[in-house]
Design goal:
Layout (H helix, E strand, L loop, with lengths): L2 H6 L8 E5 L5 E5 L2 H17 L4 E10 L2 E10 L1 H7 L11 E5 L6 H13 L4 E5 L5 E4 L4 E2 L15
Parallel strand pairs: 5-6
Antiparallel strand pairs: 1-2, 3-4, 4-5, 6-7, 7-8
Length: about 160
C-alpha cells in the first residue's frame, strides 16, 4: 500500500490509532492514549511559543527508508516547509522531529525511528517519555538541551 492510498481510504479515517507504513507497504497501527495526546499538544504549544519562525505541526508524515513514519510533532523551517507543503508525505524530514513514547513502544523502536528521521535529514530528534521527560539528540549524540530551541524545558509538566 502507498501513503496516498492510506490517506484516501475512508475506512482508515478517524480511527483512534496512529497509522504508519513499513517498508513493505503494510499498515502499522498504534493506539493512542489521552496522556500521549496531552504531551503532544503541550509540546506543540511550547514550540509555538518559543519559536518566531517556521511551522510547528502535529502528525507529520515523513518518507523514510522503512516506509512512511508519522512524527508526533515537528518543527520545520520556512525553507523546508516550501519543499514539502504540497506533498502527501514529506520527502525530507523537518528539522526537528518529536516522538512521544507510548506504553506500547519499546526504547529500541524509539531508537530505530530516531535513526530513520536522521537519515531523512532531521537535525534534531526529541523523545518525550511517558512521564514527560524530554531527551534531545542530534546525529552524533544525546544533548543536554536542544541546540535549535535551547529554552525548551527538560520536562513537560501537567
Amino acid at each position: 500500500m502507498r501513503w496516498e492510498e492510506v490517506c484516501a481510504d475512508r475506512q482508515l479515517q478517524d480511527l483512534p490509532f496512529k497509522i504508519e507504513l513499513n517498508k513493505w507497504g503494510q499498515i502499522v497501527m498504534s493506539p493512542v492514549k489521552i496522556k500521549h495526546s496531552f504531551y503532544q499538544g503541550r509540546i506543540q504549544r511550547l514550540l509555538q511559543s518559543l519559536l518566531a519562525t517556521g511551522e510547528v505541526m502535529p502528525e507529520c508524515a515523513i518518507e523514510t527508508s522503512d516506509g512512511v513514519k508519522v512524527a508526533d510533532v515537528v518543527w520545520c523551517s520556512a525553507e523546508r516547509f516550501d519543499l514539502i507543503q504540497d506533498r502527501v508525505s514529506a520527502s525530507i524530514a523537518p528539522e526537528i522531529c518529536i516522538e512521544v513514547k507510548s506504553s506500547g513502544n519499546t526504547w529500541d523502536e524509539m531508537a530505530f525511528k530516531k535513526q530513520l528521521y536522521f537519515e531523512a535529514q532531521a537535525i534534531e530528534v526529541w523523545i518525550c517519555d511517558e512521564e514527560g521527560q524530554m531527551t534531545f539528540c542530534d546525529r552524533q549524540s544525546e544533548l543536554a538541551q536542544s541546540l535549535l530551541v535551547p529554552n525548551f524545558p527538560q520536562r513537560i509538566e501537567r
